[in-house]
């Protein structure tokens, strides 16, 4: 059986849950409580020296890390339905949209980064919230511009079926809503997120639907 | 002709230069001066709404963004020599190592982030340097542990030929050296970086070898 070590509110685990659901795969969930610091416990460090979630353990016992690498692995082993388009330029576009979220927005708003801001740099609550919202606004402005200008966009980030970029977009929208970011300037992002959330694969992956949600 | 819009000291552009060189491809370089703010000028924004480098313009005029997406594109269009191993688990491992650098270390030490720390949060020079070194140390500890423990490691991050993980590792080592981080705890990382730098594809891609180096 495939096991996902994750946390209901982790964006990266949320991405992998969507990918598993889109592929129609069964999996066990093993929660790692990030608020209690379980990610830095020996059991999780043995799975991932980075002390992060998610880790996907395959039925053969291989432990995979990094959410985008896991999603691409799933796409290679279970090709249907595809998470990437068939043409190289389309794949480059979808990967770039996914990485806009995963390499430019999300890393700056990680729990460990917010803790460093407060603990090491003495940043107050208001400035911390400002930091959080700043990187979402900067990234979403660029993402909205790309989704609006580029011909590849459709009902989803690329065409009319969900893929790797949507898998990154929806958890980032969830975070933005949680921190009450103003999403009114991003109608295209909101529209795509709504189309995604209407699908069972995305709805079942939502943080509030997880066994460890509290 | 393929054109790379980049900057000699940009890690992300450095990655793409290594990939182009490993594939033996000819390309023009069009420098975008990040210190002068040219990345936010109209010409660069038209290429990339994110206002970042690199952008790779193919001979057909398609403009590609995000360094890892560009490297995977090059690997698909020009399969030899491969940047990823042939097996899905190996590919997942190499992508995870690459993303450890590209999603966990590098985004936190970007120029725009350092500017925000100083300008918006009033962080001083010493604390800024502490931030920079903290994220490299945290990431390199995990990377060193993985490279040491995992059977896939060899002369390079994965086996005995250079690939996507090495393409990310070497520019990150360059940054660490530039900011005088202590690399003595990471013998495996230093050894792999030395093996890479001995190859012409990496040496030709080094910041100091670029036309806009100043």
From TrEMBL, chains A, B:
It is an enzyme of class 5 (isomerase). Transmembrane segments: none annotated. The keyword Transport does not apply. Its EC number is 5.2.1.2. It holds the Pfam family GST_N_3. Residues 1-82 form the GST N-terminal domain. Keywords: Isomerase. GO terms for cellular component: cytoplasm. GO terms for biological process: glutathione metabolic process; L-phenylalanine catabolic process. Coiled coil: none annotated. Residues 87-214 form the GST C-terminal domain. InterPro entries: Glutathione-S-Trfase_C-like, Glutathione-S-Trfase_C_sf, Glutathione_S-Trfase, Glutathione_S-Trfase_N, GST_Zeta, GST_Zeta_C, GST_Zeta_N, Thioredoxin-like_sf. The keyword Glycosyltransferase does not apply. One of its GO terms (molecular function) is maleylacetoacetate isomerase activity. NCBIfam families: maiA. Belongs to the GST superfamily. Zeta family. This is Maleylacetoacetate isomerase.
């Amino acid at each position: 059986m495939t096991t996902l070590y994750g946390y209901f509110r982790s964006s990266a685990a949320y991405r992998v849950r969507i990918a598993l659901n889109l592929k129609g795969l069964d999996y066990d969930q093993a929660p790692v409580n990030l608020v209690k610091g379980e990610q830095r416990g020996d059991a999780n460090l043995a799975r991932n020296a980075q002390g992060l979630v998610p880790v996907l353990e395959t039925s053969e016992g291989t432990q995979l890390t990094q959410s985008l690498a896991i999603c691409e692995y799933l796409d290679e082993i279970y090709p249907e339905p595809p998470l990437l388009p068939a043409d190289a330029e389309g794949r480059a576009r979808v990967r770039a949209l996914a990485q806009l979220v995963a390499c430019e927005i999300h890393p700056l708003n990680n729990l460990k980064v917010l803790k460093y801001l407060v603990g090491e740099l003495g940043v107050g609550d208001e400035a911390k919230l400002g930091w959080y919202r700043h990187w979402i606004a900067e990234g979403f402005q660029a993402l909205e511009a790309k989704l609006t200008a580029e011909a590849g966009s459709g009902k989803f980030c690329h065409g009319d079926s969900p893929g790797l970029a949507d898998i990154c977009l929806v958890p980032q929208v969830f975070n933005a809503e949680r921190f009450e970011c103003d999403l009114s300037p991003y109608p295209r992002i909101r529209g795509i997120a709504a189309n995604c959330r209407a699908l069972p694969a995305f709805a079942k992956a939502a943080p509030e639907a997880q066994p460890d949600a509290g």
